[in-house]
Amino acid sequence: xxxxxxxxxxQHHVWHPYSAIDSALPAYPVVSAHGVRLRxxxxxxxVDGMASWWCxxxxxxxxxxNRALKRQVDELAHVMFGGLxxxxxxxxxxxxxxxxxxxxxxxxxxxxxxxxxxxxxxMAIQYWQARNRPTKQRFVTVRNGxxxxxxxxxxxxxxxxxxxxxxxxxxxxQYFAEAPACPFGTTCGDADMSSLRAILxxxxxxxxxxxxxxxxxxxxxxxxxxxxxxxxxxxLCNEYGVLLIADEIATGFGRTxxxxxxxxxxxxxxxxxxxxxxxxxxxxxxxxxxxxxxxxTIVRGEPGVFMHGPTFMANPLACAAGLTSLRLLLDSPxxxxxxxxxxxxxxxxxxxxxxxxxxxxxxxxAIGVVELDQPVDMQTVQPRFVDAGVWxxxxxxxxxxxxxxxxxxxxxxxxxxxxxDIVATLCAQHH
Length: 431
Prior knowledge:
Layout: H1 3-13, E1 30-34, E2 37-40, E3 45-48, H2 51-54, H3 63-75, H4 87-99, E4 104-110, H5 113-130, E5 138-142, H6 151-155, E6 175-177, H7 190-203, E7 207-212, E8 216-217, E9 223-224, H8 227-240, E10 243-247, H9 262-265, E11 271-274, E12 286-291, H10 292-300, H11 316-331, H12 334-349, E13 358-364, E14 367-372, H13 378-387, E15 390-391, E16 398-401, H14 409-430
Parallel strand pairs: 3-15, 5-6, 5-7, 7-10, 10-11
Antiparallel strand pairs: 1-2, 2-3, 4-12, 8-9, 11-12, 13-14, 14-16
């Protein structure tokens, strides 16, 4: 296809995330990417502030990642995981068991973050079935959460402010505690836990697990909350006999300043979901990890196996990418890099605090958020960011950054400066 042909076909025939066919919002054609820069078809280069939705932590076109995939494709690109196994999957599983909070010992590979959440929910239900508690089939979560776009995952996303209100009558009705109100870095009192405690007290016989995003509620509003809440939630789960599922798809692999957000609270969940940064943005792969107790209980019940098995489960190319990505991360001064990015975000986004239409500016690890008091007009704002030479993708009232860990101070400053300038313009226009 000629350049104009494929771009035209894209607009009229290809769905993009949360988009409409024939949308007036442009989809900018990328022809190559290297480091933290995206090159568009018209020759412009954009500094990427999104790391392709958290995942491209080493930047694009990394030579070691490229070599690993080339080696793997020459040996084994794919083989079914039913009845067969292969070294990349086993080595990656061993690495995940080693790195994740102590006690997580078994690994189920899934295709995507949403699927890893589906797997976690099914594991929790099968666990209680095996313990002869068949009524425990519902889930409790906290408001403002986001866990994915498949049906089970949608049911535990915020039912009011979330993205899935359209489907409310089709989804299983779950239990929703008030969103954690205690900010990151503070402690939580009894009042902060009262909503969750009351639901567990009333419905413990029907609840299989609590699922939450530890520390950072991502697509539900980029909210940061206290590690103490996560610690106390773990204690409540123990007290009321429900499992704890930690969704670390967005927070895992260093984004918050610890390798996993659960480490801020010093807890081990019963089930852990990881994805996004797992393969450094090269291929789709996620994993659901459990404790030995959960795994052993599941296999003791009917039908004696865990009931899930994706076609592309543990794809060797994706596993090879995951192994290389984790090695690159652990061999790098990642903690120092995250600290440096946090300081750059604090400094660069600080001017936004003075603008009248800015509700909040917050930074945690390699996440920087400017929250406005009204939704962003994407049709106006997105082209402005592109014209400023940066790729920033707002949603709702939020303009945020989560760059690759390799980003330079200069490129980070370019991103924060573009946000500050554009927010200032928006506020001036509104005023």
